[in-house]
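Working notes for the structural subgroup meeting. M.R. asked for a predicted model of this chain before we commit to crystallization trials. I am recording the input and output together here so anyone reviewing the notebook later can reproduce the run.

Input as submitted:
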Amino acid sequence: MISLGCPKNLVDSEIMLGELGRRGYEVVNDLDGADTVVVNTCAFI
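Returned structure, recorded in token form:
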């Protein structure tokens, strides 16, 4: 999970990471070991 943007965006990323963990996904810090990369950007106006 890569978060780019405002503080609300960081909270959204934490919520997504928590939900992924609850659904049984393994979060890794190594891009080479990742099957999927999520880039969460800020769109708040």
